[in-house]
Amino acid sequence: MPPPLPRRRAWGASAEPTPAPPPPDEPPEHRTPVDPWAGVDTGSWDVPHVELPPLPPTLPYPAPPATRQWSGPPAPPVGPHPVSPPAAPLPPAVRPTTPTPPAPAPVVPRQRRGRRSAAPPPVTPPPDWQPPKGYVPVTVRRRRRWPWVLLLTLVCCCGCPAYYGFPISAQYPARAALPGQVADLSLRQDDRSAETARQLENEVRQQHWLAEDTFAGVYATADGKRVTVFGGTGFRLTPEEDADAEITRLRERYALDTPETVDTGVRGRHERCAQGRSGGNAVVVCTSVDHGSIATGVFTRLSVADSGALLNTLRSQIITPEQQS
User: Fold this and answer.
1) Fewer CB within 10 Å, N- or C-terminus of the chain?
2) Which residues in the chain land under pLDDT 50?
3) Contact 194, 178 (CB under 8 A)
4) CATH class of the domain comprising 174-321
5) Per-position DSSP letters for 193-258, written without gaps between them
6) What does each C-alpha distance from 195 to 198, 206, 249, 287, 311 come to in angstroms?
7) Residues in Cβ contact with 71 at an 8 Å cutoff, skipping those fewer than 6 apart
């Protein structure tokens, strides 16, 4: 039989001969093992073994306390469950042609802050419960707070107005009249003293246009001490500020120094005194103001303390609250 003819090369096939496939790799189990530590000095790896101390013995868990059996009524017997009739076959679901939007999330109402939650129900003991031996029940009394709240309300509503309103009611209204003699001082009635008193009274009326009554007079002693006093009556809400304002008004006329505060010992009455000069003579000017009147005095040949004390004596004889009359 003649040999087969060589196969014709297909259209586009390479004219180079196809190389032979590489030989398969040798499986790992057939390879010769290699020691990675061959030729390495491993003698220094012998580390002496240290004996560790034995662990402490484990304590046993305490035995749980014995539980008492429930002495309540027995549970009802469990019977066979009733067999429900077979459900009717559901019709085949119809796939919608359009996608269904997701359902909105449920709206949870927000809790208001500051609102107290309802009190939990009282805890009752189980049936046939017996208290331990020696147990004595103690009744807790609920404290009543409404008397303290009522008392505090009465103090705030009545006490504060009474505290601040008592000086006003004790000092206003008041009336003024110049006595002829105060201690060792005598009221002078000569023409010059009367003219001075008339000018001072008109000035008080112009400066304190809310004054209900005004007064002015010149007093003197037998040894030559002279006291000029003037002022007026009327309601004053801020007597301390009025006392500072009166000293400021008279500062330029009498060349007054820094005023000093004088303790009157009367709540609601404020007094200021300052040293100055008038007609070349040293004088002390003092003013005393409360809720119902103002009195100012110009003193010669007296100290600040004596001038303040004498002004209090003069105003007690000149000004009389109507509550005391």
Assistant:
1) N
2) 94, 96
3) no
4) alpha beta
5) HHHHHHHHHHHHHHH-TT-SEEEEEEEE-TTS-EEEEEEEE---S-HHHHHHHHHHHHHHHHT--S
6) 5, 17, 21, 22, 22
7) 127, 128
Is the distance from CB of 322 to CB of 176 less than 8 angstroms? Answer: no
Residue 1: strand, helix, or coil: coil
3-state secondary structure of 35: coil
Taking the C-alpha atoms of residue 84 and residue 91, their distance in angstroms, rounded to an integer, is: 20
Contacts 24+ apart (CB under 8 A), 312-317: 312/264, 312/271, 312/288, 313/182, 313/183, 314/182, 314/185, 314/219, 314/227, 314/229, 315/231, 315/288, 317/179, 317/182
**Segment 153-200, tens digit of pLDDT:** 655 565 555 555 566 778 888 899 999 999 889 999 899 999 999 999
Coil vs helix vs strand at 319: strand
Say whether 162 sits in a helix, a strand or coil.
Answer: helix
Give the pair of three-digit tokens for residue 133.
């031996």
User: Two tokens at 139?
Assistant: 């009744």
DSSP secondary structure code for residue 180 in this structure: S
Kindly list the domain boundaries of the chain, sorted by start residue.
Answer: 174-321
Amino acid identity for residue 219 in this structure:
Y
Q: Would you call 276 helix, strand, or coil by DSSP?
A: strand
pLDDT of residue 188: 92
Query: What is the H or E stretch that residue 283 is in?
Result: strand 281-289
Strand duo 226-233 + 213-220: pairing: antiparallel
Distance between CA atoms of residues 296 and 112, nearest Å: 64
CA distance 285 to 308: 9
Q: Given the structure tokens 């404020």, which residue do they identify?
A: 270
CB atoms within 10 A of CB 312: 18
Query: What pLDDT does residue 225 have?
Result: 87
Contacts of 62 (CB under 8 A, 6+ apart): none
Helix (H, G, I), strand (E, B) or coil at 272: strand
